[in-house]
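The authors assume throughout that readers already know how a fold can be written as discrete tokens. For illustration, here is how one protein appears when written out as sequence plus structure tokens.
>
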Amino acid sequence: MQVGSEGSWVRLPDKPVDVLYAEMGDSAMIFQVRWWIESCEDTRRMFDRVHRPLQRAINEAGIESPNPTQKISLEVEAGTANHPLEAFGGTCPVWPGS
């Protein structure tokens, strides 16, 4: 994957850009990117000009961010509720099989 020239202004010509795949989180791919610049005057724009081409390259490569998922299991004791919602104070007028 290569990042286009849009972000090339942020680095010094004689210094390489370092990219490390640092961590695979539950719902994230975490990279560490290091580049060299001449001045830190406008840090917000500098990050924008690095992040945009990186995101574009990730999208064009077809890399998708993992979506966070959670599995919730509920156990209701027999006879305490006719429907799981009732166990939490909700109501359900019709429960199949009841």
Q: What stands out?
A: The beta strands are 18-25, 28-34. The first strand starts at residue 18 and ends at 25.
